[in-house]
């Protein structure tokens, strides 16, 4: 994906060709749609790391038959896949990219307490305020071009239901315009180096960037003229992410899972009483659809569930602990 502060939300690549079925399945599959802000965050990070990846396009709203088969009904995008391991939520996906690229600064574990609080603010209250700021005809035209007029109506109904199901602490602020202005002012002060992380971008940069990407690139809003440091930072990130990607079909995604074994479980599983039991896991903030499976790993930062379907065989589905709730399956 490549864009700039005045361009449109498009995905470009240095290499783009359909994937052919072969004995070798490339490692990293991203299930995403073009205007998803959190998917933009992951695409930009993959490009910065110069990691090749496979693009499995999905729709902006359920039903998503392929993702449902692999991730058991998890409804948020993006989802990443490496063989028979499925990664839900961008926090877990960032951990995987950090490990693949040897860049620990891209992992949530690299953040100190102050940075973590900033990222939480950027990806909750500020993010939803920026999504609200993006509302307008440029956004409507992009959605209609992607899913058609009826798809737009379905998307609006879907997002309305998602908002109504939000936990109180996840609800968008009442005065989104004030929140966005304060955020831009804060970024302008923080940007004393090329990136928030210093000379090279870190997770804090990509987390602070993707909500602005949605408002500016997808919503067509002009937010940065009065914030030159933030504008330059935004453009640096926007131009980092030229990368190699290829399309992959749904059948090939299923084959990648079916023809692989989940990777070995970490040795650091704790003594969680639910290990080996049927459980249900769901986000605790928004998009609250639950996934069922058998808990096979309970780690300091993530849960791993075992699921089995006739189509994909056995898969391990990874979730972060933060902002997710785990309970015995009813």
TrEMBL record:
Keywords: Transferase. Residues 30-104 form the GST N-terminal domain. Gene3D superfamilies: 3.40.30.110. GO terms for molecular function: transferase activity. This is Glutathione S-transferase family protein. It comes from Parahaliea aestuarii.
């Amino acid at each position: 994906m490549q864009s700039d502060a005045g361009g449109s939300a498009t995905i470009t690549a240095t290499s783009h060709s359909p994937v052919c079925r072969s004995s070798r399945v490339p490692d990293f599959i991203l299930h995403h749609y073009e205007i998803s802000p959190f998917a933009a965050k992951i695409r930009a990070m993959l490009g910065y790391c110069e990691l090749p990846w496979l693009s499995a396009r999905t729709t902006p709203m359920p039903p998503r038959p392929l993702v449902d088969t692999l991730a058991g009904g998890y409804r948020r995008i993006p989802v990443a896949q490496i063989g028979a391991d499925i990664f839900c939520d961008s926090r877990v996906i960032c951990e995987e990219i950090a490990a693949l690229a040897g860049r620990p600064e891209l992992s949530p574990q690299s953040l100190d307490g102050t940075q973590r609080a900033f990222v939480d603010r950027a990806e909750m209250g500020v993010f939803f305020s920026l999504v609200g700021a993006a509302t307008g005809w440029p956004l409507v035209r992009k959605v209609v071009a992607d899913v058609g007029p009826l798809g737009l109506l379905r998307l609006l109904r879907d997002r309305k239901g998602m908002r109504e199901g939000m936990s109180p602490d996840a609800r968008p602020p009442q005065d989104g315009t004030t929140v966005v202005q304060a955020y831009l002012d804060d970024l302008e002060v923080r940007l004393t180096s090329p990136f928030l992380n210093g000379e090279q971008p870190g997770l804090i940069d990509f987390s602070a960037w993707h909500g602005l990407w949605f408002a500016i690139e997808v919503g067509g809003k002009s937010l940065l003229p009065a914030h030159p440091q933030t504008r330059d930072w935004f453009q640096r990130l926007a131009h980092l992410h030229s990368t190699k990607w290829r399309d992959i079909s749904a059948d090939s995604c299923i084959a990648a899972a079916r023809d692989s074994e989940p990777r070995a479980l970490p040795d650091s599983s704790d003594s969680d009483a639910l290990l080996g039991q049927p459980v249900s896991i769901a986000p605790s903030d928004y998009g609250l659809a639950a996934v069922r499976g058998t808990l096979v790993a309970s780690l300091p930062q993530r849960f791993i569930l075992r699921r089995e379907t006739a189509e994909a065989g056995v898969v391990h589905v990874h979730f972060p602990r933060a902002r997710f709730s785990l309970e015995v399956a009813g």
